[in-house]
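Notebook entry, cofactor series.
This is the third protein in the set we're modelling with a bound small molecule. For this one the ligand is copper (II) ion. I'm keeping the input format identical across the series so the outputs can be compared line by line later. Sequence and SMILES below, as received.
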Amino acid sequence: MRRSGRSILAATLLAAITGCGGPATLSVDDAYVRLPAVAGRPGVAYFTIHGGAEPTRLLSVTSPVVVRTELHESMNRGAMATMVPIRDVPVAASAKLIFAPGGRHAMLFDINARVKPGKNIPLVFTFANNQRIEVDVPVIAAGDTAHHHH
Ligand SMILES: [Cu+2]
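Returned structure with ligand:
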């Protein structure tokens, strides 16, 4: 799997800057998008949110190359794995919220057909404190797993 080295380096640097000392800064890292196995099905975005000095809420995750998005939580009901939409997500001060396979995620409906594995797309994270954070996110194929470069 090929990924853009520059975005990974930028994300790592950002994590290093926000991770040590000073007041906590609301930020997003470790984000990636997994495309659907079948074209036309929704893709999924995973990411980690770091809370700032004040509590807030994540309202939405959107992208200019995606028609519609929903925040979801995966649940196990007996043998059935299901997903339920969640409205918004509280982000406590200095919290670390991990959106990962098997848990919370953003569902991406109608991804632009030009979006391919190995490319990056922008994701826009909107918070209740009126802050918007845009992140350039690598795209992986349906069968790929994300590698973490730490
Ligand atoms: Cu979902």
